[in-house]
Amino acid sequence: MALALLAAGVSGAQPPPTADQPPAAREPVPVRVVNPPLAVRVVEAPKTEAQFDAERKARDERAALSDQLLIYAALLVAVGAFLAIAFALQAFYLGIGLCAMRRSSQLAERNITAGQRAFVYLGSLTWSAAGGNVTISPIWANAGTIPTRRLRICTNWKASHGELSPDFDISYARPPENLFLGPSGKAEIGAIVIPMRDI
Known about the structure:
about 200 residues
């Protein structure tokens, strides 16, 4: 009995806790769940025969529509290919036609140029005797429709008995003379003097 009182007295003699010391932490109290949460599952009502028929009909309509779209797409591709081939053929034949037209225009232009060019020829010869010589004067004519450009005339003579040899060479003692002839014009130029003994 005495020992129990002494122990109680010693324990009561301990100083009380000061304000500077933090209070002792409390241990968490375990919580016991009595009833766990229940899983709720929504059960759909069974479909009727009419709903199955409607879904089947909708699937059939979508399949038919997709088939029609595929057929239309194939037709569009075929028509596009046909148009591309037709365009290529038209371009090919158009190119051939343009080439033919260009050749025809070139030929027509060449013919027009040939028809409108100057055409100079020896129209006639005049002669006159003076002493022991004969003077021969050629008369040049332009039968074209345009005047001549850079026309030069050079004349000479050479006596030859019999046929001319293949290596016959004509040398011109005088330099060429410039001549302008208009359309249907005539001019006398390049007179030559031949002695009577060589005729």
